[in-house]
């Protein structure tokens, strides 16, 4: 298809937003357009390509099979355009915006991000600590640091920051109240922080101890290592934590790791960003710095 036969750029931009939100209203809000104008641009595009891109229902829309095939390619094309303009931009007072899971933010990045800012004073860092999975193709965030299973999206570059392992930890105060811990089975006599956490099941399986959460603890959930660690430090129970994040607390004696045995479920922490933005100078600088600084976490 030559340039004269390409669909109108504005119609493609509207399609990209509607496909991402699956809503004419939300796309209109993002693009500062009325819903009628959004509908018109989609109609123009559908007439140009010769087939429907969305199916309309009473209160929702959905991509047609051809729309589903087209959407990621259009999204990538706009990311390439955005990255191209950013790469030639002379203004060095750029902003790096990224989403990050609270555990990695609190237990590693907060203590180390100053070194990046000293090395790159012309890049302003904007960090959004949240467990919410953000859309990296909407332009609001440049990259993300995610936790859990390795992201499986062929549009993304995924770099390993840390493969997470975990082990029980206990405060000296709780240990004094509950008595000595000599075998893994002794932990079952103590209150556990978030006993339904799959990490508990995996760890007890690794040490060959049958495990079933007690009725009195079953159901409590604090929603992340940062909060679980706070409860553990306060002596409220035994936490199941990633030791490398708590080296200082362990060295100072505020946390005790009673057993050297760790377990893993194949989860980790990952740096992710769109392939289409791989040539963005600020993303390149941050990713290189982050991978270099976290090398010890992977050794």
From TrEMBL:
Family to which this protein belongs: Belongs to the LysR transcriptional regulatory family.
Task: State any single GO MF term.
Answer: DNA-binding transcription factor activity
What GO terms in the biological process aspect are recorded for it?
DNA-templated transcription
Record the organism. Limoniibacter endophyticus
Q: Which SUPFAM superfamilies does the protein's record reference?
A: Periplasmic binding protein-like II, Winged helix' DNA-binding domain
Query: Taxonomic lineage per UniProt?
Result: Bacteria, Pseudomonadati, Pseudomonadota, Alphaproteobacteria, Hyphomicrobiales
Q: Superkingdom, according to UniProt? A: Bacteria
Provide this UniProt record's keywords sorted from A to Z.
DNA-binding, Transcription, Transcription regulation
Residues covered by the HTH lysR-type domain: 7-64
Q: What protein name is recorded for this chain?
A: LysR family transcriptional regulator
Q: Give yes or no: UniProt keyword Oxidoreductase.
A: no
Signal peptide interval = none
């Amino acid at each position: 298809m030559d340039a004269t036969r390409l669909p109108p750029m504005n119609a493609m931009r509207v399609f990209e937003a509607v496909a991402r939100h699956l809503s004419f209203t939300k796309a209109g809000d993002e693009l500062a357009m009325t819903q009628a104008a959004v509908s018109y641009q989609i109609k123009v595009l559908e007439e140009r390509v010769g087939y429907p891109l969305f199916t309309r229902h009473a209160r929702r829309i959905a991509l047609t099979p051809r729309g589903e095939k087209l959407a990621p390619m259009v999204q990538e094309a706009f990311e390439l355009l955005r990255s191209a303009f950013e790469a030639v931009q002379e203004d060095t007072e750029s902003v790096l915006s990224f989403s990050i899971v609270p555990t990695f933010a609190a237990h590693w990045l907060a203590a180390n991000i100053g070194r990046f800012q000293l090395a790159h004073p012309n890049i302003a860092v904007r960090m959004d600590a949240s467990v919410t999975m953000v859309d990296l193709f909407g332009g609001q965030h440049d990259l993300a640091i995610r936790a859990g299973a390795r992201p499986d999206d062929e549009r993304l570059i995924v770099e390993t920051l840390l493969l997470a392992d975990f082990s029980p930890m206990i405060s000296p105060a709780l240990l004094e109240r509950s008595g000595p811990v000599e075998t893994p089975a002794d932990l079952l006599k103590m209150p556990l922080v978030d006993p339904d956490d799959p990490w508990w099941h995996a760890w007890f399986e690794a040490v060959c101890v049958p495990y079933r959460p007690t009725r009195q603890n079953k159901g409590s959930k604090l929603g992340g290592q940062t909060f679980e660690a706070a409860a553990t430090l306060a002596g409220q129970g035994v936490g199941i934590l990633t030791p490398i994040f708590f080296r200082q607390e362990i060295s100072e004696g505020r946390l005790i790791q009673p057993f050297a045995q760790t377990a893993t479920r194949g989860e980790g922490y990952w740096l992710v960003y769109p392939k289409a933005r791989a040539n963005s100078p600020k993303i390149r600088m941050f990713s290189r710095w982050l991978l270099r600084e976290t090398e010890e976490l992977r050794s």
